[in-house]
Amino acid sequence: MRIAVTIPSLLRDCTGGRVKFELEALTLQEALNQLLLSYPLLRVHLWTETGQVRKHVLLYYNDTNIAWLDDLEIPLQAGDRLTVFQAVSGG
């Protein structure tokens, strides 16, 4: 199943300039794994060294924050989306 992925423009240098693209996967976990395989530069921006999603990053599967999900082995359906939000702060 193909899943639509959107990332913030701040991270487009990690994806060859792309902010919207598709990944092929059967489950949400597989889509997240494929995201890192296809775009390894995203790893440092999205995950900590221990594999946790960084505090300033939100990953949404459709309209649900994946932090609220008990299991990421969700079968993907046509029209599903994975959206990356990254908080920006500073002065």
From TrEMBL:
<dbReference type="Pfam" id="PF02597">
    <property type="entry name" value="ThiS"/>
</dbReference>
<dbReference type="InterPro" id="IPR052045">
    <property type="entry name" value="Sulfur_Carrier/Prot_Modifier"/>
</dbReference>
<dbReference type="InterPro" id="IPR003749">
    <property type="entry name" value="ThiS/MoaD-like"/>
</dbReference>
<dbReference type="InterPro" id="IPR016155">
    <property type="entry name" value="Mopterin_synth/thiamin_S_b"/>
</dbReference>
<protein>
    <recommendedName>
        <fullName>MoaD/ThiS family protein</fullName>
    </recommendedName>
</protein>
<dbReference type="InterPro" id="IPR012675">
    <property type="entry name" value="Beta-grasp_dom_sf"/>
</dbReference>
